[in-house]
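To whoever is on call:

I kicked off a structure prediction for a single chain this morning and the downstream step that reads the tokens threw a length-mismatch warning. I double-checked the sequence; it's 158 residues and nothing unusual in it as far as I can see. Pasting both halves so you can look.
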Amino acid sequence: MSFCIGAQTVMGTLATIGVGMATPDKVRTYIGVYIAPIESTQVSLEQPSGTFGIEYDVIDHIRLFAEHHSSPMSCQDDPGLNMAGVKFFIPLSSDAKLYTGLAVHDESFDSNNELRNPIIISGIEVGTEGVKLYTEYMTDTYNFDGGRVQSGIKFFFR
């Protein structure tokens, strides 16, 4: 088993933190770590996996996002999974929300997945503005039962 954190990962981490510190409070960046306890036929990243992302709440309950997923446990997952989309939220309490949304990615560029556009994402997030726990299901509209369940933690930068 290998562990690969290269220059792109370091630069992505620093850029995520820098953008988060330099943008208005409504624009949030995050770094996360997650596991996928159920095997997926659509996404093949080794466990644990990580994510960099940026999000912006357009209005209450509607969020635009873009994120990158990869695994430091694999030296061959470049370019990972890269997607952008929109999520719609339903608050359950002051710090818990259900969500569902749609995303797209460049199917010819991303090499570690079989996801076809559009990607469907549904889940729950719990936490404060600085740290959130989440569990979500990601799939496409062509193979709904081959998707990926993932659970993890996100650390936010403003």
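Update from on-call: the warning came from a stale cache, not from the record. Cleared it. Sanity check on the structure: The first strand starts at residue 27 and ends at 35.
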